[in-house]
Amino acid sequence: MSKNFDVVVIGGGPGGYIAAIRAAQLGFSTACIDEWKNAKNGPAPGGTCTNVGCIPSKALLQSSENFEHAGHAFADHGIKVDGLSIDIPKMLARKDTVVKQNNDGILYLFKKNKVTFFHGRGSFAKAADGGAGYEIKVAGAAEETITGKHIILATGSNPRQLPNLPFDEKLILSNTGALAIDAVPKKLGVIGAGVIGLEMGSVWRRVGAEVTVLEALPAFLGAVDEQIAKEAQKLFVKQGLAIHLGVKIGAITAGKKDVTVEYTDDKGNAQKAVFDKLIVSIGRVPNTTGLNHDAVGLKLDERGFIAVDHDCKTNLPNVWAVGDVVRGPMLAHKAEEEGVAVAERIAGQHGHVNFNTIPWVIYTSPEIAWVGKTEQQLKAEGVAYKAGTFPFMANGRARALGDTSGMVKFLADAKTDEILGVHIVGPMASELISEAVVAMEFRASAEDIARICHAHPSLSEATKEAALAVDKRSLNF
Ligand code: FAD
Ligand code: NAI
Fold first, then answer.
1. Which string of DSSP letters, residue by residue, matches 227-274?
2. What is the per-residue pLDDT across 252-302, written as a single tens digit (0 to 9) for each?
3. Cα-Cα-Cα-Cα dihedral of 246, 251, 256, 259, to 10°?
4. Per-residue confidence (pLDDT) for residue 371, from 0 to 100
5. Gap from CA of 99 to ligand 2 centroid (Å)
6. Residue 300 near residue 307, CB atoms below 8 Å
7. What is the pLDDT, as a whole number, of residue 72?
8. Whole-number percent of the chain with pLDDT over 70
């Protein structure tokens, strides 16, 4: 087997494995190195997303939502469920199966596309002589050195810990531990009301935990459109999530079986809470551990991300970086888009990532999804805009589903009617947002969406109606 490659990708998460596949499709001899291990020490490509992120969290969100529906929502349909209970080890085992299917799927895709996979840690040995590119050491079961003319770094991110509070994954949990709690905790504390806090808090609340979320900022989901965030907060509180905003976390003391969190509330009062488990979800930090980047003079920025330009080029010739380890949103689909664009740029093509149309989704119930600008951003930027909203309460399909919470909101340029942002809180927002992304990518106007025939009865009619509402013409509300 040749050890000299056109492209060597370090990291097999969504950024890395997709970059490797695209590079191979473009005719480059390609290697992908990933160090993630499964329970049997075997390879588990797919990175954070597949192993302890997107995929397992969505598996648990689905299981816990099914449980909640069986307990509450089914009764309205005349379906009686007696003696309802949940088997947590089975729920976790199903999640593990879903993860393994994805790991295996990636190994299959590597074979299919002739990407050579190395299981181990990749690090810079040195810039190789003779135009071969860079020497990369792979430390796995054995140690070997390979070369790559182009290197794509996709080493992802790690959970941020609170100062002096390392994750033990028993009491103090990162996302890894939060996805593997083996019995429902009576009292679950969550520090950080961000995406992980809300998704994981929802999972464990639905299966019976009393969940308290402590958030430093005074506003709930500050990056989300204010109207949508307010609506979501109302719905989460109604479901039973206790959300405390504007808190200042003080001492945290882990005992043998519980953990005590001292904090100051938004009124300045000292508070103390005791939890059976504590999830700390206060953001993530870029991962460059073990890359030996200093040996080749690879530049990091002041926050520890690999410094890249708009095209994901680093300061070193033919070294690129994508995904969570570089600036921009920490999202799997952003990492993938960058991976594809870099492979295409290496091939001399015009790889393209449109940062204005990257969708965000929070997979709570109801889901929250958005693309483009929020109303508060448009106000701050002094952009003249029109807004239109449509509630799911007035949508026939949502009524039939029994899920009428939330709304669709359109923001369009006051003069040109170009769509500037679309924000959804409600059923299947994760799927509905795609129409808005496509529309914005084609620079459509609200009128374009308003004039397109949408199937009846469907949730997507709420999107059309919100577009109509921009000119105060909604038909069903
Ligand atoms: P990663 O997925 O982190 O992959 C990096 C890989 O590189 C890892 O396998 C790592 O082991 C490996 N690696 C690192 N250094 C080396 C080295 N030196 N040698 C060899 N291998 C190395 N995003 C979404 O878009 N949707 C979601 O629903 C979503 N849910 C999430 C839920 C949770 C709980 C978390 C924590 C994250 C979630 N994310 C979600 C974010 C998403 O997981 C990340 O944005 C995404 O995984 C980033 O991809 P990446 O390829 O940059 O890095
Ligand atoms: P986050 O950035 O979404 O939220 C962190 C929250 O913690 C913020 O609200 C912040 O104000 C708060 N916080 C920070 N320090 C604090 C402190 N000391 N005390 C109290 N609150 C504090 O980060 P999170 O939830 O850890 O997720 C990390 C990233 O992973 C996300 O930003 C996202 O990029 C990705 N992700 C994406 C998902 C999706 O797309 N559905 C799901 C989960 C994660």
1. HHHHHHHHHHHHHT-EEE-S-EEEEEEE-SS-EEEEEE-TTS-EEEEE
2. 999 999 999 999 999 999 999 999 999 999 999 999 999 999 999 999 999
3. -10
4. 98
5. 22
6. yes
7. 86
8. 99
Residue 54 near residue 332 (C-beta atoms within 8 A): yes
The answer to whether 50 and 44 have CB atoms below 8 angstroms apart is: yes
Question: Tokens 């059309």 — which residue?
Answer: 464
Asked, colleague to colleague, whether 172-282 and 357-470 share their fold, the answer is no
Residue 128: the pLDDT is 64
* Nearest ligand (C-alpha, residue 55): 1
**pLDDT over 70 (residue 388):** yes
CATH of 357-470, one of 3.40.718.10, 1.20.272.10, 3.30.390.30, 3.40.50.300: 3.30.390.30
Query: pLDDT at position 73, please?
Result: 86
Q: Is 36 in the pocket of ligand 1 (CB under 6 A)?
A: yes
Question: In this structure, is the dihedral angle defined by the CA atoms of residues 302, 303, 308 and 310, taken in order, positive or negative?
Answer: negative
Say if residue 129's pLDDT is above 80: no
**Amino acid, single-letter form, for residue 327:** R
Atom of ligand 1 nearest to the CA of 290: 18
* pLDDT (0 to 100) of residue 2: 66
Check the CA dihedral 376-470-427-403 and report its sign: positive
Q: What whole-number distance in Å separates Cα of residue 15 and Cα of residue 193?
A: 26
Strands 187-191 and 134-140 come out as unpaired
Nearest CA to ligand 2 atom 23: 283
Task: Quickly count: other Cβ atoms within 10 Å of residue 477's Cβ.
Answer: 15
pLDDT exceeds cutoff 70 at 346: yes
CATH 1.20.1200.10 assigned to 3-159+285-353: no
Q: Within a 13 Å sphere around the CA of 333, how many CA atoms are in the beta-carbon half? A: 10
Q: Which amino acid is at 85?
A: S
Q: How far is the CA of 90 from the centre of ligand 1 (A)?
A: 25
* 172-282 placed in CATH 3.50.50.60: yes
Where along the chain do its domains lie? 3-159+285-353, 172-282, 357-470
CB distance 34 to ligand 1 below 6 Å: yes
Q: 51 alpha carbon to ligand 1 midpoint, in Å?
A: 8
pLDDT tens digits for 298-334? 999 999 999 999 999 999 999 999 999 999 999 999 9
Local confidence band at 422 (pLDDT 50, 70, 90 cut-offs): very high
Cα gap 412→439, rounded to integer Å: 12
Does the ipTM exceed 0.85? yes
Whether the predicted pLDDT of 161 surpasses 90: yes
Residue 456 a catalytic site member: yes
Q: What is the DSSP string of 31-77?
A: EEEE--B-TTS-B--SHHHHHHSHHHHHHHHHHHHHHHIIIIIHHHT
For 199, the token pair is: 């998704």
